[in-house]
Amino acid sequence: MPDRTNTLLIGTSNAGKVRELRQLLHGWRLLTLADFPAVQPPAETGETFEDNAALKARYYAAHTGLWALADDSGLEVEALGGAPGVHSARYAGAGATDAENVAKLLAELQRTDDPERRGRFVCVIAIASPAGRTWLFRGACEGRIAHAPRGQGGFGYDPIFIPEGESRTFGELSAEEKQQRSHRARALAQARAFLLSLSDAAAR
Ligand code: ITT
Q1: 10, 17, 49, 184: which to mutate for ligand 1, most atoms within 8 A of CB?
Q2: Integer Cα distance of 94 and 97 in angstroms
């Protein structure tokens, strides 16, 4: 049962996610995959964010004996029927860089005008116990896709995503501004509340 004296494994190989999850889980004792160099990432064979998040969290909990948190996330674009979606990390091919994925998305949307450039970031956080029980939490952030990358902040598709009510991209916002509205912050707020309720129940 995790409480503030116990440890939670952040089960992601994405450095941008680790940075944000650490900020959002301020106060928890955290380990990352850097502490388990022999544990290789699992194949993401699921068809939904929920499938892949659960698969990763269960895998990392089983391979470390710790409570594990995993994040499956991506960008859904309306004009592309929800693509790249769960394939966001490998949109431009296996092992694609963030810059290659961004370039491919901009090329796909080259003839698409603003109203159809609407989309959303989705994040599903899974928490798994060492025994393999899993809990899921979903957050989303609505917005639109810019015509060219702007800003050096964040990671992944941040330089081309403009959240609703903003004119700047996530890449142009500070880390704190992104956390105020991001899909990850929304999913993690629910996961945090769940973890705290487990700790409270354990303390009673
Ligand atoms: P793990 O599976 O090890 O966590 P990953 O990078 O493969 O790492 P995903 O399969 O969940 O993670 O792919 C997420 C993709 O969506 C990846 O290309 C990210 O760059 C992108 N993405 C997710 N959240 C993002 C965010 O907040 N800002 C920009 N891009 C994001």
Answers
A1: 17
A2: 9
Q: At residue 162, does pLDDT exceed 70? A: yes
pTM of the model: 0.96
Give the model's pLDDT for residue 6. Answer: 75
Q: Is 119 in the pocket of ligand 1 (CB under 6 A)?
A: no
Residues designated catalytic: 72
Indicate whether 183 pLDDT > 70: yes
Residue with CA nearest ligand 1 atom 2: 12
Are the C-beta atoms of residues 137 and 125 closer than 8 Å to each other? yes
DSSP state of 141: E
Phi, psi of 68 (to 5 degrees): -130, 145
Locate 68 and state its tokens. Answer: 């594990």
- What is the pLDDT, as a whole number, of residue 170? 98
User: Hey, what domains does the chain have and what are their CATH numbers?
Assistant: 7-203 (3.90.950.10)
